[in-house]
């Protein structure tokens, strides 16, 4: 998955994700079974609950961290800088005009579901 580019085919992506998913499934189940197997009978319920909580929390934190890293990488790339400098790019938030709201009742215009810019 480290060799993925914009020209990578879907077949290569699906193949890599298939291998990754099978590897995770084949390694996580024995690890979790071994961890639960080392507990006594009255500890299994709490141990299973704790492992599920840790797994969900770690997955959420990992997803958030990777999202921030990817966003910063994309925004600092030369392609993003060139896109933001192009005339087709959306205006930066500091220079965008404010939406024009109807003055009478301050509601959305009846003809659209979004404010007019």
Automatic annotation (TrEMBL):
<keyword id="KW-1133">Transmembrane helix</keyword>
<dbReference type="InterPro" id="IPR036259">
    <property type="entry name" value="MFS_trans_sf"/>
</dbReference>
<keyword id="KW-0812">Transmembrane</keyword>
<feature type="region of interest" description="Disordered">
    <location>
        <begin position="86"/>
        <end position="117"/>
    </location>
</feature>
<feature type="transmembrane region" description="Helical">
    <location>
        <begin position="12"/>
        <end position="36"/>
    </location>
</feature>
<protein>
    <recommendedName>
        <fullName>Major facilitator superfamily (MFS) profile domain-containing protein</fullName>
    </recommendedName>
</protein>
<dbReference type="GO" id="GO:0016020">
    <property type="term" value="C:membrane"/>
</dbReference>
<keyword id="KW-0813">Transport</keyword>
<keyword id="KW-0472">Membrane</keyword>
<feature type="compositionally biased region" description="Pro residues">
    <location>
        <begin position="89"/>
        <end position="100"/>
    </location>
</feature>
